[in-house]
Design brief:
The protein contains five helices and eight strands. By secondary structure, the chain is α+β, with helices and mostly antiparallel strands. The longest helix is centred in the middle third of the chain and has 12 residues.
């Protein structure tokens, strides 16, 4: 058995759970939740239906030393909760900036988890960013509320391609100076 430890990605404590680096044992729950069409349709990159091997490749990229995106699992086991409630990530950009992305499993929607995760990542600022950016589909106002609740400012409208929808979808773009 090989134990893989990511030294360059810290565990970040949120109010009721931890943001921890992914591990191979997360693949089953990630596949279960990401395979839900309601989750996939609110992301740019999750296909629906989820093809075989997609989750394994995703976790392998998250564990790679040369990755350009740090991905954390929202893990509430320290408080007796679920081991994986969703994912949150920071993708490195130029000029000390990152793009934040997240999804929460439907079983945990409307519980404040996304806001707590975003606030914890902003507070920890593990990549030493000067600013963070995010965009959400315009038909996902709950995600827009998470960002504004966490101090993000609206920048403007744009559009992004959504793999699950096989369509270009209007987005709102936000930024937060740190």
């Amino acid at each position: 058995m090989k134990l893989v430890q990511i030294i360059n990605q810290p565990v970040v404590e949120a109010e009721n759970f931890d943001l921890r680096p992914l591990r191979r044992s997360d693949m089953g729950l990630i596949e279960h939740y990401a395979g839900d069409e309601r989750v996939a349709r609110m992301t740019t990159s999750i296909p629906h239906p989820l093809p075989p091997g997609t989750t394994e490749a995703f976790v392998a990229r998250a564990l790679a030393e040369d990755r350009d995106e740090d991905i954390w699992a929202m893990d509430a086991t320290r408080s007796g909760g679920a081991e994986l409630m969703g994912l949150i990530s920071l993708e490195r950009m130029d000029r000390d900036q990152s793009e934040i992305g997240y999804w929460v499993a439907p079983a945990f929607w409307n519980s404040g988890i996304a806001s707590q995760a975003v606030e914890a990542l902003i507070g920890a600022n593990p990549q030493g960013n000067a600013a963070m950016f995010a965009s959400v589909f315009q038909d996902n106002p709950a995600s827009a509320r998470v960002l504004t609740h966490c101090g993000f400012q609206y920048l403007g409208d744009a559009e992004s391609y959504c793999v699950a929808r096989d369509a270009t979808v209007p987005t709102w773009t936000y930024s937060r100076k740190l």
